[in-house]
Specification:
The structure is a single chain. The chain has one domain: Alpha-Beta Barrel (TIM Barrel), CATH 3.20.20. The radius of gyration is 21 Å and the shape is globular. Helix content is 40%, strand content 13%. By secondary structure, the chain is an alpha/beta fold. Bound molecules: 6-O-phosphono-beta-D-glucopyranose. The site of 6-O-phosphono-beta-D-glucopyranose has 14 residues, from loops.
């Protein structure tokens, strides 16, 4: 099958996050972070929110899959060689903040942590792969959560600044592409992951989340400015979780509701980070939801001066919105709300599959901002089966990715400036929402299971060979 032409130099690759694949959670002087106290299994986010952060690390009732991840910490050479075999141009990974500052509030960074990422970046460059680094991906140091209350506390801006300065200075010759906060706009839905706290009551969720977000906006803008100073050729992006919001029907009440939900979810954070100011609709929304932000003098100037160079986003699903919905209409797997869309099928985890929604997203984002875009997460979490001969025939994953890449090609043809595509979990890793190994996204299978068993051996899936061909043909062979 032939698709549209992708730009020359298009950055094909894959994406990961430190806490979901590195393992080595207590090696090299690393401190604990949020993910280290997340137990395995569905409902883990709720569980942690209920119990607070006083989980004992070796609590016998729970498993902690993020502790071992898939052991990239020790196997990075083998994994990077596999990425290179697929022809990756770029590899997205995050730096675990608590490897660099184990508690988060130290004055000096941890040399062993810095040295680890030196080795990883050197290995990537050896294979001609450009690193794309997320600075904060759901892994706030635990000490900052317990002692300071996470991003609710303004002091985190200062700690983050120290961390960012340390990594920009250290990796200035090795890393050109950076992202500040992963899925920043997901924070109001999942404050625990993004902001490192659980609002005490539903009534204060929005107030607390937006205050935490305001601190992240300032921290992110400072990072962009600093990055440009330390690494003049750097490209620093924001990272959104994007879901186009469709109206359930043509009832104007629903249409207006969907429009505003989309504005708040998709564009509020984007406008602050890309345009450098809160959007026109923010005041009314904050008033109606009892949100009063504590904005200090100088904050808005910092935000204005630290706008991003490009916009990156994750895309898994669209959201179908209805002003008044019954409980039966709610899509169960849809983490970001909405009702079931009768035109869409869903994954085994209930995530609705909507390739055209990716073209919609790309057009909406480019239409609003006219800045280069990058799709830095997209993929299908599925159960894989290893056949007796050792093969893994993941045709469902190939179909999912093919349809999404086709729609990206359409968006490029529409005129969207698209820099690259890194599919999520290019190697199987621990799921963020459920802590499962069995929710697999990879082109590379990892022999590791929910009960903790497995050899960690890597195997190429059918999609591995397919993606290799996609990359070598620059998206022509799908
Ligand atoms: C994104 C996150 O929300 O979705 C990743 O940035 C996450 O960390 C990915 O892994 C897929 O979600 P899940 O819950 O299937 O791992």
């Amino acid at each position: 099958m032939m698709t549209k032409q992708f730009p020359k130099g298009f950055l094909w690759g894959g994406a990961t996050a430190a806490n979901q694949f590195e393992g080595g959670y207590n090696e090299g002087g690393k401190g604990l972070n949020l993910a280290d106290v997340l137990p395995g299994g569905k409902g883990r986010l709720k569980l942690l929110a209920q119990t607070g952060f006083d989980f004992e690390i070796d609590h016998s009732k729970y498993t902690y899959p993020n502790h071992e991840g898939i052991d990239f910490y020790h196997r990075y050479k083998e994994d990077i060689a596999l990425f290179a075999e697929m022809g990756f141009k770029v590899f997205r990974l995050s730096i675990a903040w608590s490897r660099i500052f184990p508690n988060g509030d130290e004055l000096e960074p941890n040399e062993a942590g810095l040295a680890f990422y030196d080795r990883v970046f050197d290995e990537l460059h050896k294979h001609g792969i450009e690193p794309l680094v997320t600075i904060a991906h759901y892994e706030t140091p635990l000490h900052l959560i317990k002692e300071y209350g996470g991003w609710r506390n303004r002091k985190l801006i200062e700690f983050f600044d120290r961390y960012v300065r340390a990594i920009f200075t250290r990796y200035k010759d090795k890393v050109k592409y950076w992202l500040t906060f992963n899925e920043i706009n997901g924070a109001t839905h999942m404050p625990l992951l993004g902001l490192g706290f659980s609002p005490e009551k539903e009534e204060t969720r929005l107030q607390d989340s937006f205050q935490g977000l305001h601190h992240q906006f300032v921290a992110s803008a400072k990072a962009v400015k600093l990055g440009h100073e330390i690494i003049p050729e750097s490209q620093i992006g924001c990272m959104l979780i994007y879901a186009p919001v469709y109206s359930y029907d043509s009832n104007p009440e629903n249409v207006m509701h969907a429009k505003r939900e989309g504005d708040i979810f998709n564009f509020l954070c984007g406008d602050v980070q890309v345009r450098g100011e809160y959007p026109y609709f923010a005041d009314r929304y904050f008033d109606e939801n009892n949100v009063t932000l504590d904005i200090e003098e100088g904050d808005l100037e910092i935000i204005k001066e630290g706008t991003v160079d490009f916009i990156s986003f994750s895309y898994y699903m669209s959201r179908t919105d209805k002003k008044i919905k019954t409980p039966e209409e709610i899509g169960e797997g849809n983490l970001i709300g909405g009702v079931k869309n009768p035109f869409l099928k869903a994954s085994d985890w209930g995530w609705e599959i909507d390739p055209v929604g990716l073209r919609v997203s790309l057009n909406e984002l480019y239409g609003r901002y006219q800045k280069p875009l990058m799709v830095v997460e997209n993929g299908l979490g599925a159960y894989d089966k290893v056949e007796e001969d050792g093969s893994i025939n993941d045709d469902y994953r190939i179909e999912y990715l093919r349809e999404h890449i086709e729609q990206m090609g359409e968006a490029v043809e529409d005129g969207v400036d698209l820099l690259g595509y890194t599919s999520w979990g290019c190697i199987d890793l621990v799921s963020a929402s459920s802590g499962e190994y069995s929710k697999r996204y990879g082109f590379i299978y990892v022999d590791k299971h929910d009960d903790g068993s497995g050899t960690l051996e890597r195997k190429r899936k059918k999609s591995f060979f397919w993606y290799k061909d996609v990359i070598s043909s620059n998206g022509k062979n799908l």
